[in-house]
Design a protein that fits this description.
The chain is an alpha/beta fold. It has 3 domains: 205 residues, 3-Layer(bba) Sandwich (FAD/NAD(P)-binding domain); 110 residues, FAD/NAD(P)-binding domain, CATH 3.50.50.60; 105 residues, FAD/NAD-linked reductase, C-terminal dimerisation domain (Enolase-like, domain 1, 2-Layer Sandwich), CATH 3.30.390. Helix content is 32%, strand content 27%. The chain is built from 14 helices and 24 strands. Strands 1, 2, 3, 4, 5, 6 and 19 form a 7-stranded mixed β-sheet that branches. Helix 3 runs parallel beside helix 6. The chain is globular and about 65 Å long. The chain starts with a strand and ends in a 7-residue tail after the last helix.
């Protein structure tokens, strides 16, 4: 059994939390190893964020082509090839994976292939090789995997999770998507634009349950116009998985309903990858399978940290990266600022896009704020009109006493890119007046943010 050099830091898992933590550790002078059982980059890079965004771009291009007459372009004989979209997606992933490997090499980080298991006293056993890694500090960044309903198997033929769906090359005539969160909504947009009849089943009373209902109403209208059937407030009573498809029995506001489809995509959430990790032996505290950590990522066992999805804090790639940096900087003797979970940007990349940060109006009131709300639609925005994408609006939630921006909620063109302006502003505790005093270029979509801020302080210009 080979024994490796003792490291200052060993990271188990190379997703956006793990590999970023490893790089930051190396930058701070730590000797670092990263242990990965599958592909560098984890779920986000290989089966999640990156491949789905590539597929969404293809779908967006196809949608524009179908409406080319709006731009004075006549097209005949359009022949969409979904398999080519998947080829492009996989090519993007391959470049990204090579990029992460390059960063590991550049930062002198040892990459150990295999599954890491805690063995006590700073030791990690790597299976199946039996290799041992010794480290003064260990970060668990093992992430999470899609959750399935009991009795279902993600076979990649009839039942899919997001992991299998990004490699699906032949779209059926009909698809049921179970779960109306970001994953369900993004795949629905892709599949529908390629001619698949899509039905989304969601237990909550609207899609994207964590988003502002006003925002989601715009998305739902756009989806219905696209031909997507939306069944919100529907509970799944049973699912039968057969060789040729699935049969779902649902209960909704109008009673019982049955659905048949050749394929089912399940996007109902994630469960942490904590099995066979040695947590019990190490005495690490968990809650419903998630590793319990403090604001710096510390577990209850000295020298062992956890970040990202495995903690269940906020299951987003950028959260994992931020948590990783905080943990590593603490390990290196710095005094990092903990992640502020009230300021987590959330983005859904369908069209129209949905983006939010901070408190909703209801949350702000619940916390005792006297709030003002400013809204501005994209319909009068010159850049949005030029793009032909005028659905949606920007909504800013402001504390009426101090004028501080508490949150922003957007739906419309490129709002996932616009969101960072508010994010930076909130970090600096900006006010709606300061957003107004910031000159925004014309014509830009970002002018909608300025106008929403103006509306919040009762001084709208273009409404």
């Amino acid at each position: 059994m080979a024994e490796r050099t003792q490291y200052d830091l060993a990271v188990i898992g190379s997703g956006p939390g793990g590999y970023v933590a490893a790089i930051r550790g190396a930058q701070l002078g730590l000797k670092v190893a990263i242990i990965e059982a599958e592909e560098l980059g984890g779920v986000c890079l290989n089966w999640g964020c990156i491949p789905t965004k590539a597929l969404l771009k293809n779908a967006s291009v196809l949608h524009t082509i179908k409406h080319a007459d709006t731009f004075g372009i006549a097209l005949d004989g359009i022949k969409p090839d979904y398999s080519k979209a998947v080829d492009r997606s996989e090519a993007v992933v391959a470049k990204q994976t090579k990029g992460v490997a390059f960063l590991m090499k550049k930062n002198s980080i040892d990459v150990v292939k295999g599954r890491g298991v805690l063995a006590g006293n700073g030791k990690i056993t790597v299976t199946p090789s039996g290799e041992e890694v010794l480290a003064k500090n260990i970060i668990l960044a093992t992430g999470a995997r899609p959750r399935l309903l009991p009795g279902l198997t993600a076979d990649g033929k009839v039942v899919f999770t997001s992991k299998e769906a990004v490699h699906m090359r032949d779209l059926p005539a009909k698809m049921v998507i179970l779960g109306g969160g970001a994953i369900g909504c993004e795949f629905a947009y892709v599949f529908a634009n390629y001619g698949c009849q899509v039905t989304i089943v969601e237990m909550a009373d609207h899609l994207l349950p964590k988003e502002d209902p006003e925002v989601v109403a715009v998305l739902e209208r756009a989806y219905k116009k696209l031909g997507i059937e939306i069944l919100t407030s529907h509970k799944v009573d049973s699912v039968e998985q057969r060789a040729d498809g699935v049969k779902l029995k649902l209960t909704g506001p109008k009673g019982s309903l049955e659905l048949d489809a050749p394929r089912l995509l399940v996007g109902i959430g994630f469960q942490p990858n904590t099995e066979n990790l040695g947590l019990d032996k190490a005495g690490i505290k968990t809650d419903r399978g998630f590793v319990v950590v403090d604001e710096y990522g510390r577990t209850n066992v000295s020298g062992i940290y956890a970040i990202g999805d495995v903690t269940g804090k906020a299951m987003l790639a950028h959260v994992a990266s931020s948590m990783g940096i905080v943990a590593v900087e603490l390990i290196a003797g710095h005094q990092p600022t903990p992640v502020n979970f009230d300021r987590i940007p959330a983005c859904t990349y369908c069209e129209p896009q949905v983006a939010s940060i901070g408190l909703t109006e209801a949350e702000a009131k619940k916390r005792g704020h006297d709030v003002k709300v400013g809204k501005f639609p994209f319909s009068p925005n010159g850049k949005a009109m030029a793009l032909g994408e005028t659905d949606g609006f920007v909504k800013i939630v402001v504390d009426s006493k101090y004028g501080e921006v508490l949150g922003a909620h957007m739906v419309g063109p490129e709002v996932t890119e616009l969101l960072s302006e508010i994010g930076l502003g909130m970090t600096l505790e900006t006010t709606a007046l300061e957003v107004d005093l910031t000159m925004h270029a014309h014509p830009t979509l970002s002018e909608a943010i300025k106008e929403a801020a103006l509306a919040a302080i009762g001084k709208p210009i273009h409404l």
